[in-house]
């Protein structure tokens, strides 16, 4: 009976335990479910989500810049931030010794930075370290790591990190620096193409949420690189023109100079050389070269009185209106009064009866002042505006100046300006404006917009830029006639601008520089604008030298420089001499 | 009545047999739970490993892109206008003058107008991580249950 009672009691206890355990499990399960579905759980889940993902901005690689033949003008290279991850740092003194010794830092300063990180987890020791500069330190780092691993010890350089970043690099250093501009460490394009096309080059950054958990694979968006640009610049021609310009500055003792080479049919700028030039890989030295921003690229940013090169526009207007024809005779008396002011020739002497070719050949101020007054102010200024004088050309480079053309009605316009403007005084233009205006004469009366962008490459596709017309200020016939007149005038005076084997048209310009309100005859801006071959213009060259000391005349300075540049142009652009070209055409 | 009771006794399973069935069912459930847990652990571990691999590959891609940019820039430096001129001069060349050029008439020759940097290969599609590497088992089950049922007889047999 007792045994039965014990067995019964044991059975009850077993049943009790058997009942309790599932019940406990059920309670636990129920509690789990209750906690999981409670409103508080959702709050915790939301909080966890906030920490689980972090918003990160992915920046595209900046687009490259190439010349028209595919030579890299602006690319990217890896530079490193050398720093120490403080929690992983094993030996501050060894790190300080190695880093300061190999990267040229002060040991004590580096050591103190590591000892007193002021709460920083990562202490940067040096930024923008180039690969070749970093190589010795990396070698030591790897060697010490290997030795320490062999001895089952932590490396004394533990914690030292090299964080890679991309930095702009300019393989050609100073070449075409005025055209390219530079990209500074504030991630901004400055001057030239880098500034004008900054948004295209930079591309579009993409924001994405990435998981904090390193074991979780997050979707990182594919960020397309910035647009790659191809310029119309011909690198080899640019280098040759820059060399010629530098040599000319030495030969003629000029302060500064500008030479532009353009295709007058398309407006493509093939070379644009200016002085001084900045090594783009040392852009922080900008202040050593330039006082004002407009000095960076005088070809587009600096305006000046062009002098007699402007006469080609006056003559173009005269021919187009029919006011004169090449054979029109003007009897030059050496002076003319316009707006009660006496205007004289550059040599202050009369040249007697002259046809219009003679007026251009001898660069007679009086003849051109007569021509502008014969046309009348309304017609003259209408033509100047049609040629784009007084407004930006729209060249795709940052910082273009509009120049200045005073017109009747302006407070500072006087009647004498009609006479002086005709020979390029009292009017301010930039070299690129003169190029655009003269393109109408070389290009059958059609003016083209100068540009440096040849094409754009994005997503593997290339889009080339088409020629943009800028108006038709004169008819084709007067344009041909004027080209011919300018070619004859150069040949008649056996100008130093002539190019052996090629017939070219052009005009010199010597403009005195105003100093304290008066023109100083000892300081001049000398210019030359010309194009060729005359029957099929394929290049147009503008030369401007500031204050040459060897001679104040453009005939002696700008003209020979034009000839030298033109001879390089025909070789590098594979333009055969006229005789060969005409022989091929006749076949 | 006695017959009914007898019959019931005759077909009732022994208590120990019922208990064993219950225990078996419990163990079966436990086994299923263990299998699901093991499967879940395996899938999660694989996803984590692959996640790490993706991260390493991504870092490698960045390194290679940087290396490419470096090499391209270095090549451009080595073949810059100034470098090429120095090398040409060192080899005894000098710039040609206009009078020294000889031109040949080549029928059909067209002067090259400009470079083409367009990529002739189709651009690679953006890599995307398939959901198999990012979904947990529960997320997969939830997605499976939420997707509209596809008819088993959707296909047309000939």
Protein architecture, described:
The complex is a heterodimer of chains A (587) and B (158). In chain A, helix 3 packs antiparallel against helix 5 and helix 12 crosses helix 18. Chain A has two domains: 155 residues, Penicillin-binding protein 2a (Domain 2) (Alpha-Beta Complex), CATH 3.90.1310.10; 352 residues, DD-peptidase/beta-lactamase superfamily (Beta-lactamase, 3-Layer(aba) Sandwich), CATH 3.40.710.10. The longest helix of chain A has 36 residues. Chain A is built from 20 helices and 20 strands. Chain A is of the alpha+beta class. With 158 residues, chain B is mainly alpha-helical. Chain B has a domain of 68 residues. Chain B has four helices and no strands. The two termini of chain B are 64 Å apart. Chains A and B meet through strand 3, strand 5, helix 9, strand 16 and strand 17 of A and helix 2 and helix 3 of B.
What is the typical, i.e. mean, pLDDT of chain B? 79
Total DSSP helices of chain B = 4
User: Class of the largest domain in chain A in CATH?
Assistant: Alpha Beta
Tally the beta strands of chain B. 0
Overall radius of gyration of chain A: 37 Å
Please tell me how large the radius of gyration of chain B is: 39 Å
The total number of structural domains of chain A is 2
Order of helices and strands of chain B: HHHH
Strand content of the residues of chain A, in percent? 15-25%
- What oligomeric assembly is this protein in? heterodimer
Shape of chain A: elongated
Largest interface (CB < 8 Å):
A-B, 57 and 50 residues
Distance between the termini of chain B: 64 Å
CATH superfamily of the largest domain in chain A: DD-peptidase/beta-lactamase superfamily
Strand residue content of chain B: under 5%
Count of extended strands of chain A: 20
Q: Please give the CATH architecture of the largest domain in chain A.
A: 3-Layer(aba) Sandwich
- CA(first)-CA(last) distance of chain A: 137 Å
